[in-house]
Amino acid sequence: MTVKIKLKNSEDYVLIDDHVYEDINNHPYLGAIDLLNNLRKHSSGCAVFQKTHKNARGTYTTETYYLHKIIAERYLMDRRDEENNLACNANGDKLDCRIENLEWRSKKWVSRKRKTRNKLGYTGVRVEGNRYRATIYKEGKQINIGHFDRLSEAVEAYNDKSRELFGEMGKINKLRKEDMDK
How far apart (Å, rounded) are the C-alpha atoms in residues 84 and 137? Predict the structure, then answer.
């Protein structure tokens, strides 16, 4: 059974398994701080509990508890290894914290799946003059994929190379409708 928990600062809900809900509420510390009734949506999109307190130096410190990480550490430690040590949501929904949706992934995988911050909005593609250049990195080394007249060609070339180098773990750009003819 799944429990929906309303977030304090959002209209969104976080999903967790009913037995996890009971376990966290009955935990000596997590229950005492009323973690599940004080969850917020973090700027990263995750469900968090944040606690601010004054430290010995007179400044304030904020502790942040990520719900998906707490659950993964309590229920999935047997699946964690040296390389795959970051708790992630398998379906990409950061508010779906059911055990079946949590898994451990590598820092490399998470980095490749991160949303791009470049001006075009596509990982590995940039403008050079009046053309588009596609590049990708593997093991810290830049690989030049090529120059293209059309944005859509550069995006597809990047995607092809990403699949070739990284398989299902590769970053795949989703071409926006408005860019299909560019």
Answer: 20
Residues 48, 52: Cα–Cα separation, whole Å: 13
Residue appearing with tokens 């949706």: 101
Q: Taking 70 as the threshold, does the pLDDT of residue 6 lie above it?
A: yes
Q: What confidence tens digit (pLDDT) does each residue in 94-105 have?
A: 999 999 999 998
Position of tokens 């079946």?
A: 100
Strands (E) across 1-148 are located at 2-6, 13-17, 40-41, 47-54, 60-66, 84-89, 102-106, 125-128, 131-138, 141-148
Domains and CATH numbers, the chain: 2-111 (3.90.75), 115-179 (3.30.730.10)
φ/ψ (deg, to 5) at 84: -95, 85
Task: Give the pLDDT of residue 77.
Answer: 94
Q: CA angle at residue 114 from 120 to 20, to 5 degrees?
A: 145
Amino acid in the structure at residue 178:
E
Taking a C-beta distance cutoff of 8 angstroms, is the pair 86, 106 a contact? Answer: yes
Q: Which of 33, 34, 40 lies closest to 9, judged by CA? A: 40
pTM for the whole structure: 0.67
Residues 62 and 42 sit within 8 Å (Cβ to Cβ): no
| SS3 state of residue 96 | strand
